[in-house]
Write a structure and sequence with these properties.
The protein is mostly helical and 81 residues long. Helix content is 56%, strand content 0%.
């Protein structure tokens, strides 16, 4: 991100340079952005990582992941008694 900051400040090709015309002022926010669109999703920014991991493992392992998660919840409930 530091390299992008230096690029934005020094490069004449940077979108942050006032000489470069933008189609919309919001285009400045989308160019070289690191947030990946997480600011616009319905989850809090701090929970996006957990949701991404859950979605990844569900897509990769499917029902096996669901069964393991359910088993983990059942074990945790038994241990809390």
């Amino acid at each position: 991100m530091g390299a992008l900051l230096i690029f934005d400040i020094t490069s004449p090709k940077s979108k942050a340079n006032p000489a470069n015309k933008l189609p919309n002022p919001m285009a400045l926010m989308g160019h070289n952005a690191f947030h990946g669109g997480a600011m616009r999703c319905l989850y809090m920014y701090t929970t996006v990582g957990e949701m991404a991991v859950l979605i990844f493992y569900f897509k990769k392992y499917g029902l096996m992941f669901l069964a393991m998660a359910g088993g983990g919840v059942a074990v945790a409930m038994q241990m809390s008694k």
